[in-house]
Amino acid sequence: MGAFEYRQAEDIRDAFAAHCVEYLFLGKSGAILLGFPDTTQDADLFVRKDPANGIAIVAALRELGFAINDLQAADIERGKDFIQLKNGPFDLDLIFAPDGIERFEDAWSRRIDIEGFPVCHLDDIIASKEATGRQKDRESLPRLKSFREFWRRRN
């Protein structure tokens, strides 16, 4: 798959809104929506862990063109911590328990709304990247932190 595109974020926003899914853009896809000048291969979504929300997520993903099988649907509905989807029009990670963020409700209260996109606050995106300990996240942290300073001055 190629780089994640703004149009795909719009598709997620619209389908998830139609199905009343509670979610936040997280990771680099969230930072990019806030203006971070970078690319990513997938979208990371922090989704509220709740069976009704899980059912809505499955319906929205199927509407988007994801081939969700019964096992994946069950994992989504029960809120498995991390689900990576590569069976649709773009790559998508559903994260029910991101590293570095305690509760969905806390992140929701700090969210930034950008053109109808619910995005995790940049501090939460950075906290999550710091908590993963992955090499690729450690490499992007200095740029994200520098962007946060620029973003704070601008906002």
Written as H for each helix and E for each strand, in order along the chain, the element string is HEHEHHEEHEEHH
CATH architecture annotation name:
2-Layer Sandwich
- CATH topology: the name is Beta Polymerase, domain 2
- How do the strands line up in the largest sheet? 1-2-4-3
Structural class: alpha+beta
Spans where pLDDT lies below 50 across 5 or more residues: none
How many distinct domains? 1
Count of DSSP helices?
A: 7
DSSP, total strands: 6
* Alpha carbon gap, first and last residue: 33 Å
Strand % is: 15-25%
- Rounded to an integer in angstroms, the radius of gyration calculated over CA atoms is 15 Å
Helix content: 40-55%
Name the shape in a single word: globular
Largest sheet: 4 strands, mixed
The residue-averaged pLDDT reads 95
Question: Which CATH class?
Answer: Alpha Beta
Description:
The protein has a single domain, classed as 2-Layer Sandwich (Beta Polymerase, domain 2), CATH 3.30.460.40. It has a four-stranded mixed beta sheet with strand order 1-2-4-3, with helices on both faces. Strands 5-6 form a two-stranded antiparallel sheet. The chain is globular. Helices cover 52% and strands 16% of the residues. It starts with 5 loop residues before the first helix and ends with a helix. It contains seven helices and six strands; from the N terminus they run H-E-H-E-H-H-E-E-H-E-E-H-H.
What would you say about this model in short?
This protein is an alpha+beta fold.
